Amino acid sequence: MMNNSRLMFIIGSNILMLVATVGGRGQPGQAKPACNFPAIYNFGDSNSDTGGISAVFLPIPTPYGNNFFKRPSGRDCDGRLIIDFIAEHLGLPYLSAYLNSIGSNYRHGANFATGGSTIRRQNETIFEAGISPFSLDVQTTMHFDQFRWRTHDLFNQANSSMEREKLPMADEFSRALYTFDIGQNDLSAGFRKLSNEQLKTALPDIVNQLAGSVTHLYQQGARTFWIHNTGPIGCLPVATLYIRNPSPGYLDKFGCISSQNEMAMEFNNQLKARVDKLRIELPEASLVYVDIYAAKYGLISNTNKHGFTDPKKICCGRHDGDLNIWCGNKAMVNGSEVFGGSCADPSTYVSWDGVHYSQAANQWVANLILNGSYSDPPMPVTHACYKHL
Predict the structure, then answer these.
(1) Is 46 designated active site?
(2) Is there a domain that residue 40 lies in?
(3) Could you read off the pLDDT of 4-16 as tens digits, one per residue?
(4) Catalytic residue among 351, 356, 375, 383
(5) Which residues of 306-317 are buried (b: 16+ CB within 10 A; e: fewer)?
(6) Global pTM?
């Protein structure tokens, strides 16, 4: 049952979206029509992976997906991700993962994101560190390019409309929305391997590599980009779960690791500056920078106000004292098998499994960002194809 505060928030957000869509930011009576995107092409990590890593390696198990899809759906969540809410808002189907060859439909886009992906390639294995081999350059310069070439050939070779109905049309690539949600794993890998000073020194190269991927897609005809910055990684329960007796200042007043969030904010500041520079380098592109950090931190710092429980609590898994069973896993405890299952009401939790947000939290964040309130320039996703409104 949705509580009154969250209901009023969603109603208010929808009103803002209507105002932004109808009135834009231009003169009265001069509002521009919605962009009518024919497709979405997404690049990122587990925050927007709709089945890629699950198709390539071990499938994500139950209870993932059970709260909405009623089964595991390849998402690291109990239900939908922010990219799913973007697709819904634009009237498009949920994105099929590029790496999932079974039952996929690519007529209205494809998802190249995979759990564990980084912007820069890492010298770690996926089994040791949760790092995907499909870094951003692989997603954009290998997977996307091959997808475009092969679907173009298949479309031209098709003998019937039935054969074409799951393939994109060549002239629609330039009118599609290209979304990015990546960078969190670069920081988490850096926290494991580097000093803070070394990681800070590496940030410009990480940001430039993301910009290089945007530039490559632009050269292939992409024109509209919706780029998320990275969230408050120091607030993830997986980062704070094992902390005992922290020194003064190590945690902020909301229980987040201050140094990790400061690094995330530095990454975001550099990313925003680089997006500004890309607007000059790519004159025909519309580039929207989305402040996911502010949206997520706003929720974490005001959970009670918005009807959520303590953001440090984890919905799925068992974490009691020295007992740590991660979501969907099993362990023997005192001779009995114990399963890391779901809490009774995921809709009241910010964190689903300690690393990823719940569907309810994803929807809360989506309601904030879709109307352009957290974007630069401030425009709703429906109008992202315009440089200015």
Answers:
(1) yes
(2) yes
(3) 444 444 444 443 4
(4) 356
(5) bbbeebbbbbbb
(6) 0.91
